[in-house]
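Trying the structure run again after the queue cleared.
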Amino acid sequence: MPIAVYVLGLAVFAQGTSEFMLSGLVSGIAADLGVSLSAAGLLTSAFAVGMVVGAPLMALSSRTWPRRRALLLFLAVFVAVHVVGALTPSYGVLLATRFVGALANAGFWAVALTTAVSMVPDRLKGRATAVVVGGVTIACVVGVPAGAVLGERWGWRSAFWAVAIVSLPAVLAVLRSIPGGRGTDTAAAPVPVRHELRALTGPRLRPVLLTMALVQGATFCTFSYLEPLLTRETGLGAGWVPVSLALFGAGSFAGVTVAGRFADARPVAVVATGMAALAVGWAALALTAGRPVFALALIPLLGMLAFGTGTALITRVLGLASGAPTLAGAFSTTAFNLGATVGPWAGGLALDAGFGYRAPVWVSALLMVAALLVAATTAKGRRPRAGERRPSEAVG
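Done. Tokens:
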């Protein structure tokens, strides 16, 4: 595996820490800025909205740039908005910095995914995707719990400063390791945008993208409100929050690693098994959230299933969208974060409706049922043509 692929994973680690760290900081932010828990949770949704909007826009605007230049610009903006976020006393400004930071993160993700898979042969594309996505899981293991510890001891702003500082080595690493050209074949003309859009909106890709959005919506719905669930429903002290986040991240890393090895060869089995297990797993967490032993046992398992299934779905999209070299990564990022937008919003609605702190977990279970229905309906609706794989691979 080229070292540059691991460098991209390092940069994603810094950005993933920012994307997920609010799950351990929502109470502190709400108290400091005088807003509700659901409003603090919307900071995660604002980030996800920026990712949804920014992925295709940033990918299109930077499609003629050398990839190293695009990656460096996105990282520089990302660092700057975290400095502003750490300094502002305004919820509105903080919300805006989350959105702008997400635009930069989305652009980086879109370029990073296509850059990584372009550097390796077909048999290693799943592993290259897993390395990049693995940066997010390492963020869950190390960065997010560290942010929770910083927030508990020195306030939530210290976590924002830490993200800005940790991002600086990633800037230097990208500068030294990523080739300066536009790709492996700099002489090739870019694929026309209309051709890429045609490839990405075909009947085989739409259900995969929708399924990815639903799976990630389920993940983010619970993850965004994990801290109040553990401290107010499970009965654990605040010191258990970073431990629980680290457990979720460890499971996520294991899931990405396993999916990276099997997603290329058996995408349908990985995705179908993962989705079914997630539907059961979220329901089990909702039922047992009041028992610390069960909750702590389920958290890493759900992290493994969520990110393993998500990685397999991203690999599937990149494989089906070979005719869209610029926008394939962007559409994967958009679907991933569309779920991250809807999930916390839906969980916040359930909380505000007075259904209790377990309500977001039940919403996660319902979203997984919806994902399974999309997969089943798509598989039933497609009939294999000569030379095609089984219909279920439409969502695998």
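The first helix runs from residue 3 to 20. Worth checking whether this holds up in the mutant runs.
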